[in-house]
Design a protein that fits this description.
This protein is an alpha/beta fold. It is built from ten helices and 13 strands. The chain has three domains: about 60 residues, no CATH class; about 170 residues, 3-Layer(aba) Sandwich (Rossmann fold); about 70 residues, Beta-grasp domain (Ubiquitin-like (UB roll), Roll), CATH 3.10.20. The longest helix has 23 residues.
């Protein structure tokens, strides 16, 4: 930062940091920029603030334009689960969603190219997941509707850039989430505060492009794993660990696929019922049809932990790949 800034600059900077709404930040930034002397040493600083000013003006105008319309962040849930991808600018969120789904978010090396969330569907072995690209996390301001979208997630995918100070990126994103009462499930305590949301949060470390970066990843991995975080290195550019990323997501969501077999017929292995790990036969029956659980008389099961066609009770725990024949 330039050293020859006047005292008025620092007073205006404090007012900007203390402002809350986009309108307040816009006004404070305009004053702040006017306090910066115009010379070569301040070109970069003024450019950064002008970029922020443009963003807050856009947010302010968007807020006015959508006052009578639904927010861009109000996205209808689809599929078997919702994953919201978050992180700082240029960590690869848009590239990931574009790579894994049918969505077409704007992918750019320029920061802040994503201004609205973009959903897509990730299909993995019969499981359909809604994957949502989001604007960069900003420690200065996050729209309330963005927070609501995050709270609706079944899993938050936190991305960092291995080649661009990943630890501060990670810490800043977690800080913003926690300041909005969104906590990783690994941090769940006995707190009875109903305002807190505990959601599975996992970390994808992007731009592990070659083996030369693996050592950097291991250093980061050791730090995060000490705190219990689930971490996976990937490279969207080089295609490293992309298949593993899909399995990583499914595993952390703790989902299982159960197949229905009509009596006397072959099971349909193309359309599984998706449940959470630990679900019982009764919960599966209710998933097939709400009346099945009430009227269920017996059931036969084919799977890795039973004999073929074994009779099981309502409280039997199901496992991924089980085939169930319900009798009502």
């Amino acid at each position: 930062m330039p050293t020859n800034l006047p005292p008025e600059y620092f007073e205006a900077e404090k007012r900007f940091k203390d402002s809350v709404t986009p309108e307040e930040k816009t006004q404070a930034l305009e004053e702040l920029i006017s306090r910066i002397p115009k010379h070569k040493g301040t070109d970069k600083l003024r450019a950064e603030y002008r970029k922020k000013l443009s963003k807050f003006k856009s947010q302010s105008q968007s807020k006015k334009n959508t006052a009578k319309h639904d927010s861009h962040f109000k996205i209808e849930k689809e599929g078997d689960g919702r994953i919201v991808v978050v992180g700082a600018a240029n960590v690869g969120k848009s590239s990931l969603v574009s790579y894994l789904t049918n969505a077409e978010p704007e992918v750019s090396e320029a920061p802040y190219s994503t201004w609205v969330p973009t959903p897509g569907i990730l299909e993995f072995k019969g499981i359909h997941l809604q994957l949502i690209d989001t604007p960069p996390i900003d420690r200065n301001y996050i729209e309330p509707e963005f927070v609501d979208l995050l709270k609706s997630a079944d899993l938050i995918l936190l991305m960092v850039d291995l080649q661009a100070f990943p630890i501060p990126q990670f810490q800043q994103t977690v800080e913003v989430l926690e300041s909005n009462r969104i906590f990783a499930r690994i941090k769940k305590t006995d707190s009875a505060d109903p305002r807190n949301y505990f959601i599975p949060i996992v970390v994808l470390v992007n731009k592990d492009d070659t083996e030369g970066f693996d050592e950097d990843f291991e250093v980061l991995n050791e730090l995060l794993k000490e705190e219990g975080w689930a971490v996976l290195p990937i490279s969207i550019k080089a295609g490293r660990n992309i298949d593993e990323a899909e399995q990583f997501i499914i595993r952390e969501l703790e989902m299982i696929r159960i197949y229905s077999k009509p009596p006397g017929e072959e099971p349909d292995l193309t359309q599984p019922f998706v449940l959470h790990s630990g679900s019982t036969l009764e919960e599966f029956a209710a998933k097939v049809h709400r009346d099945f659980a009430k009227n269920l008389k017996s059931a036969k099961l084919w799977g890795k932990r039973v004999h073929d066609g074994q009779m099981v009770g309502r409280d039997h725990i199901l496992y991924d790949g089980d085939i169930v024949e319900l009798h009502i």
